[in-house]
Amino acid sequence: MKIPQLLLLAALAGCHAGSDPAARAEARLRHEVETADGFRQVRAAEALGPFAEFPADSESPQVRIGQYRVRIAAGRREYEEILRRRALDGSAPEQCHALESAAKLAIRFSPEERRQLWDIVNGPDSPAAGYALWLLAANGDAGAARRVTAGLENGGPPALTCAYASAFLPELPEARETALRRLLEREPADSQLAAFTLWALARHGKTGADVVRRRLRALPGGTAEKVLRFHLAALGEAGTAEDLAELAGYLDSPEPEIANAAAGAILRITGRAGR
């Protein structure tokens, strides 16, 4: 999906600046949790959360993994075993989603299970390999953590997953931070890799709000939805109260995922400020 230039201008104008952005953001996300479905509903719940009784009955096995992730984040640890099984099952269509969700949640795997994860890393399925590497790093495997950094340094397709993983891994070693900064300098500003990289740096407090604002405002009118979403998320990590009016303008986006990303960013900022 493409984001029209008019939307960017409307956001800069700070639509509805006189209303409470946090209240609008929360109402927006609650409505999405009640009425949306699929990953859109999952992402809205994660931005608002926690939801111990979030639906877990999707017909899609991939979406169902996301639903389990929401429940686990709310303390429903009985669903962790489902993610472990699916993550190690190469025949499961939802394997990549299970690996990714387990990595996001830093679910612990046994030594034998970690050996199986290394088999996936060294196997032929590149997407699964990237998520398995991230999961191993999230389980404290130093070798996997070094390979995440190397994936950023070497570039190519693995860099995308490694940049995304860097946002979730609790530590940001100097070498990985340097690799992220180099990627941000050389990648096209409106690329998905640049968006993930900016977000990762912002999540770790390694880039300021001024940098994120400048890059967000410089995005061209044809910027892809996912790229804009992650720029908004980065502003949610690095931004301050002065960014609320600009973010509130995006709540009027005709693209639901953009409005939801802006809502999540607003709640991140107001949550830090204690409203």
From TrEMBL:
Domain of life: Bacteria
Protein name listed in UniProt: HEAT repeat protein
Organism: Victivallis vadensis
